[in-house]
Amino acid sequence: MAEPSPPHQHGRILILGATGQVGRELVRSFAGAGELLCPGRGQADFASPESLRNLVRSIEPDLILNPAAYTAVDRAESERDLAYAVNARAPGVLAEEAARRNILLVHYSTDYVFDGAKTSPWVETDEPAPLNVYGSSKLAGEEAIQQAGGQYLIFRTSWVYGAHGHNFLRTMLRLGSERDQLRIVNDQTGMPTTSIELANATRAIVDGARGGRFGPAEKWTGLYHMTCGGSTTWYGFARAIFARAGALLPKPAPEVLPITSADYATPAKRPGNSVLSNQKLQSRFGFALAHWEQALDDALSLIRSIGAN
Ligand SMILES: NC(=O)c1ccc[n+]([C@@H]2O[C@H](COP(=O)([O-])OP(=O)(O)OC[C@H]3O[C@@H](n4cnc5c(N)ncnc54)[C@H](OP(=O)(O)O)[C@@H]3O)[C@@H](O)[C@H]2O)c1
Questions:
Q1: Centroid of ligand 1 to alpha carbon of 291 (angstroms)
Q2: Where on the phi/psi map is residue 251: left (φ > 0), alpha (ψ -120 to 50), or beta?
Q3: Do 227 and 191 meet the contact criterion of CB atoms below 8 Å apart?
Q4: pLDDT tens digits for range 273-307
């Protein structure tokens, strides 16, 4: 676990996408770490990447956290230009401005940069080959950040969910309240990861990195896989949710039937195996996120405490 940090150690912290799943948790996990500046879409429009340059220059941050992204995987197939502006060019501008100020940029990417064909967990040095526009645009964002030449941490994560926002857990709780039977894809394997775990890990690693615990920036700047432990399919994830949901559903849990991706056609193709190895994160920072089942228990406890809606 991270040691307690001195208050305001990170100065002015610019958080983009603070209304999203991960952004919201970052606002919580970085509370007290500095002055949080969280411009919304109106002030920070990722669809106009160049406008972010002036925003960063006027805010003069000491640290940039960027969980903002175009995350509508299926819609991206028909909104390619917008997906690339938000996921590739805007992070590139942020990285250029971070490099200019010599400050750290933290960014998130996705397991969907891989084609899913490997049978063992993907490592950071594996060749990406995205199957869809979302994955290609996120890969282009990684490359733009790497080319800017500054300090960065890119955390590739997967199957993000939590108590808030649009995600699989909340969709299952809604559908499970309405239906007696659900058909869920069982041939895509991945690592469900909570926004809570991601934000807590980000805080601990940023504290350590900027506090000098991991050596000079050249030692730790880079791309890391960051997911909860273990793996499952969407079907396995759905069953785990309903096994634990109890009183969160107004009726008995639905029957969950396994289907294949071919039975559930979507505009965007998705990888069969997108399990990521977290070995590099663990060996570099000595940090591991909770197992996905533990994280699911925690997310459901949070939903019980705040109400399902
Ligand atoms: N969700 C997943 O399953 C998943 C999986 C792997 C990786 N990731 C990555 O993890 C990171 C966080 O994802 P998330 O699930 O927290 O995303 P999310 O809940 O969809 O939130 C996206 C955020 O980006 C903002 N945004 C979108 N388009 C924008 C635009 N044109 N201008 C300004 N802001 C814009 C949204 O603002 P509004 O509230 O105004 O819409 C929101 O704050 C992203 O990098 C994502 O690619 C996510």
A1: 23
A2: beta
A3: yes
A4: 999 999 999 999 999 999 999 999 999 999 999 86
Whole-angstrom distance, CA of residue 170 vs CA of residue 175: 9
Question: Looking at ligand 1, which residue's alpha carbon is closest to its atom 24?
Answer: 68
Q: Which of 70, 108, 134, 161 is catalytic?
A: 134
Considering the chain, what is the average pLDDT of its residues? 95
Q: Is the four-CA dihedral 38, 43, 48, 50 of positive or negative sign?
A: negative
**AA identity, residue 69:** A
Average pLDDT estimate for 44-55: 96
Q: Is the CB of 157 under 6 A from ligand 1?
A: yes
Which of 51, 109, 155, 160 maximizes ligand 1 atoms within 8 Å of its Cβ, making it the mutation to test the pocket? Answer: 160
Shortest CA distance to 113 belongs to which of 80, 74, 149, 140?
A: 140
What is the bridge-based pairing of β-strands 255-259 and 181-185? parallel
Nearest to 125 by CA among 276, 283, 282, 288: 276
Looking at residue 177, its amino acid is S
What is each CA distance from 96 to 2, 32, 88, 145, 300, in whole angstroms? 30, 27, 12, 8, 39
134 noted as active-site residue:
yes
pLDDT in tens, 183-218: 999 999 999 999 999 999 999 999 999 999 999 999
